[in-house]
Design goal:
alpha/beta; 6-stranded parallel β-sheet; 3-stranded parallel β-sheet
Amino acid sequence: MHTVETTLGPLPAGQLGNIDAHDHVIIDGGLTVVKEPDFRLDSVDRAIEEIGRWRDAGGGAIVDTMPFGCGRNVDKLVAVSRATGVPIIVPTGFQKASYYLPDHWQHRYDEEAIAELLIAECAEGVDRNNYDGPLVRRSPVKAGFVKVAGDYQHISPTTRKLIRAAGRVHRALGVPVLVHTEQGTAAEELLDCLEQAGVPPERVMLCHVDRNWDLRLHRRLAARGAFLEYDTPGRIKYQPESVVVDLMRRMVDAGHLDRLLLGGDVARRSYWRAYGGGPGFDYLIGPFTARLREEGFGEAELAAIWHANPVRWLTGR
């Protein structure tokens, strides 16, 4: 049985349940919250309340997508997991450039040095100090994937270097790669770069691509083997939910059910019921999944999207 590294230790993939493929449980400081205080999700107690709702609605493991240097706190993630019983898959890697100061070391270190740092987080344990230096304190929790991030309509030289480093990590350890796309742009180019770095599309998750509602693009990405993560449901500022429901149905009808993933990406206090906002962490597994059933999605289709597909991204099987 293939296992996945989580905050509760390595778990058999079959125990992960309905997987939220892209979300944020803790954001504890960093330039991110300096720029936008609504991003501060630093309360363990509020997270326990919010993740408890997700669990009670039928949710399982959560892919947390905040890497080091921009708010990751592995000890708080462990505390939330232990209190709720919900396993969290912790990232290594990098957010988009605007989440870091312009002189962050990612711009200075070469790809070999960066790859060594990422490999250590996957093989030994993530740094409790988030590689902010100079001391490294390893947690027993190992990273389960590498994150990289593109920019709007282009890929910077630093991002290309980080992608090559991620390729080294994948080739060394077999871990998957999660990609932030800015408004769903540059997705094909990002996939090209990852393939050139030695990461097969079948181990790549392209995030936020439903913000670029282009069926031809989605079919091309899926045909190459990449996983497509959709996360606009419940956040109407991006588009009506009917748009993503229709996109999902068209992708299923085109034979790409096995490429679809869902994530909440509820990375703001104003999205959490525990902070007095909404729609809440449980919206995706609750009201939105109920809508998918009403729109004709069968249980086998939902099981693929919620469990089988993310497990294949995580494990390669």
